[in-house]
Amino acid sequence: MKKLRWGILGTASIGKRSVIPGIQESTSNEVVAVASRSLNKASDFAKELGIPNAYGSYEELLADPEIDAVYIPLPNHLHKPWTIQAAQSGKHILCEKPIALDADEAKEMVAVCEKENVLLAEAYMYRHQPRYEEIKKRIKAGEIGAIRGIHGVFTFNNATDYENIRYTKEWGGGSIYDVGCYPISAARLLLDEEPTAVTTHAFFSPEHGGVDMMASGLMEFSNGVALTFDCSMWAAGRNELEILGSEGRIVLNNAFLGDQTYQIIKGDKIETIQQENKNPYALQADAFAESALEGKPLKFSYENLINGIKSVKAALDSAEKNERMILL
Fold this sequence. Notes:
Layout: E1 4-9, H1 13-25, E2 29-35, H2 39-49, E3 53-55, H3 58-62, E4 69-72, H4 79-88, E5 92-95, H5 103-116, E6 120-122, H6 130-140, E7 147-157, H7 175-191, E8 197-204, E9 212-220, E10 226-232, E11 234-245, E12 249-252, E13 262-266, E14 269-273, H8 280-294, H9 302-321, E15 325-326
Parallel strand pairs: 1-2, 1-4, 2-3, 4-5, 5-6, 7-10
Antiparallel strand pairs: 7-11, 8-9, 8-15, 9-10, 11-12, 12-13, 13-14
Helix pairs in contact: 1-8, 4-5, 5-9, 7-9
């Protein structure tokens, strides 16, 4: 069986902890190389994760003809230049979220990938969990009535790590880009539409490069439906989602990370659906490989990718400008 051969640009913790093990666990992929600015660092990383090749520069990895695709877990401001360079080297690209700093960057990235005939996908791994498709079917079937609203949260506390790259504003730091993007993407996924406006209030911390360390927002969709969300890098941890309908509600206590159960609640009746906890990073890799190796369309279109960062950027703009941002 032919497998998609991956190179990893950088030794970021998300790659080491989650994405690389997911690719290695998948059925249609293998990790064959990793690159770092330091060959020693790349070599140590490769040895620890069982990766056969290590490079002392990203350019060397991109020049390797034995690599089909690259995963980019670099800081947000580097997503665009390295995606473009990877595309021009003939590599397919899975890039960490958010795909870019704004929609214009994303459009440029897509244009280059289309020109070079390579694929580009954004690494929202949770969207590959089977439960989200199942929940969408249940909503469409009217199991909780008409959708009245969605509430999503993603928070954690990393505030003492003052050297963290998330605290560099110019690099695309802040909680909205880092974790607020998850409930925003989930609402778009579940409603199958794009928001029309967003209003966000945020706490910008002088101790952390002036980035938004906490944000709360209202994102407007059609028919009076809204997403209310909050996100933080300086609060107790949560990653939850509630879909409120006229006749019931669907609750995901671990919406983006962790156990893949969910509940349907109607009055006093609570139905708990226990899905198999398949590794979403492996599912993401196999879905990408299907497109790269077999020509299957990407699960999420380039239009979806561009609209996603447009929504996330508008949420940040609203907080910075203290005004409601119109999206359509």
